[in-house]
Design a protein that fits this description.
alpha/beta; 7-stranded parallel beta sheet; two-stranded parallel sheet
Length: about 280
């Protein structure tokens, strides 16, 4: 965790090949680019070695040290996840092998299960157990709350972090998830900033447009900070006040971005970061 450190979250550049992703990260002054577990698996399956991935990153002056997302930390049951994609994602053993290959230091942990599918005590036990294993492999766990799934808001995430006592555990704070979920500024101001281990910036419409659900919105219709109606600067100010602007960068899942050349994505993100962070 590094205060003020800029990170390019890979969803922003998901349409680009790795070398272009790295160039965009470098262009906005990011020290690091995150990588998806499935994307890393695909690169390795295509014959790209972990050494080559690290070398490409080094050539761009960027580190790749964070995996996103890990979901198989809860029981392997369809009743818990309700999502067939669960079984295509890496399990713990594959994650730890990947992390050792790449030299990763952290991983986002997402509760991709339905509300009420698991008892609260079971979620705490699972997260605590996984956090301990991850720490033994040199990985920090960044718990990301997502309104549409089983850890829906900051309160649920902070409660889980507090109860599980996972070594080095913290909260991945996504402004889209915070705004679309149950924003609680009073709670945010009570959380020690060191527990906000990453901040993902985006913007959006004040309410969901008719006919669009939250999953579709978060995957395809995020906007750069300053181009929507979220309280981006106000939330950034709260995070700055508690010392929580750690590993901060854009995470803009956008169908519009998917059709843009890397230079345009870089320019837009550079301007958006300047606007959001002051």
């Amino acid at each position: 965790m590094t205060a003020g450190r800029r990170v390019m979250y890979f969803g922003t550049v998901r349409s680009l090949p790795l070398c272009a992703q790295l160039r965009v990260a470098s262009a906005i002054g990011a020290a690091a680019l995150t990588i998806g577990l499935l994307e890393y698996r695909a690169l390795r399956a295509a014959g790209v070695s972990a050494h080559e991935i690290r070398q490409r990153a080094a050539d761009a002056g960027v580190q790749i040290e964070h995996f996103d997302p890990f979901i198989r930390w809860v029981p392997d049951s369809a009743s818990a996840t309700g999502n067939p994609r669960y079984h295509t994602h890496p399990d713990e053993d594959e994650l730890f092998r990947m992390a050792e290959e790449l030299g990763a230091r952290s991983v986002s942990v997402v509760g991709m299960f339905a509300h009420g599918a698991l008892a609260p005590s079971q979620i705490v036990d699972c997260f605590g157990a996984f956090g301990a294993k991850a720490a033994a492999h040199g990985l920090r766990c960044d718990l990301e709350f997502v309104p549409i799934w089983g850890i829906p808001d900051l309160a649920a995430a902070w409660n889980l972090i507090s109860q599980a006592q996972a070594p080095d555990g913290g909260v991945m704070f996504d402004i889209w998830h915070y705004t679309r979920g149950n924003p609680d500024d009073e709670l945010l101001q009570r959380i020690p900033g060191r527990y906000i281990t990453g901040v993902q910036l985006s913007d959006g419409t004040a309410t969901l447009p008719p006919g669009r659900d939250a999953l579709e919105d978060t995957r395809h219709y995020r906007r750069p900070p300053g181009q929507g109606e979220f309280r981006v600067r106000e939330i950034v100010a709260l995070l700055r006040k508690i010392g929580g602007l750690n590993n901060v960068g854009p995470e803009i899942f956008s169908a519009t971005f998917d059709g843009l050349p890397e230079q345009d994505i870089a320019a837009t993100c550079r301007d958006a970061m300047r606007w959001a962070l002051g």
